[in-house]
C-alpha cells in the first residue's frame, strides 16, 4: 500500500496491486482487430456502430461518440482562407 504525496487532509491510501483502469480502457480497444468499413456501413454509420458498441465498451464508446459528434470547423476555415 502506498500513500499519495501531499499534506492534504484528503490524502488516502492507494493500493498499487489494483488497476485503476476500467476493463474497457483504450488499450484494450487498440489491441482489438480493426473494424472493416463495410461492418460500420452495415450498422448504419459510425454513430450507430458506437451506440451499439457501448454495450460492451461503454467508456471507449462515450469518447468515440463525443468525438464523432463534435462539430467540424474545417469547412469554416477553408472558406475563411479562400475569401
The main pleated sheet reads as: 2 strands, antiparallel
Q: In angstroms, what separates the terminal alpha carbons?
A: 61 Å
Strand order of the largest sheet: 1-2
**Mean pLDDT figure:** 77
A few lines on this structure:
Helix content is 49%, strand content 5%.
Explain what the structure shows.
- It is a single chain.
- This protein has helices at residues 26-31, 37-43, 46-53, 58-68, 74-82; strands at 2-3, 13-14.
- It has 83 residues and is mainly alpha-helical.
- It has one domain (21-82).
- Strands 1-2 form a two-stranded antiparallel sheet.
- The longest helix has 11 residues, at 58-68.
Task: Give short descriptive properties of this protein.
83 residues; mainly alpha; 5% strand
Give the SSE map.
Layout: E1 2-3, E2 13-14, H1 26-31, H2 37-43, H3 46-53, H4 58-68, H5 74-82
Antiparallel strand pairs: 1-2
Helix pairs in contact: 3-4
Amino acid at each position: 500500500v502506498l500513500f499519495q504525496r501531499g499534506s492534504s487532509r484528503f490524502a488516502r491510501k492507494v493500493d498499487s496491486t489494483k488497476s485503476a483502469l476500467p476493463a474497457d480502457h483504450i488499450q484494450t480497444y487498440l489491441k482489438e482487430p480493426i473494424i472493416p468499413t463495410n461492418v460500420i456501413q452495415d450498422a448504419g454509420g459510425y454513430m450507430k456502430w458506437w451506440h451499439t458498441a457501448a454495450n460492451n465498451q461503454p467508456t471507449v464508446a462515450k469518447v468515440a461518440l463525443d468525438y464523432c459528434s463534435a462539430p467540424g470547423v474545417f469547412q469554416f476555415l477553408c472558406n475563411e482562407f479562400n475569401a
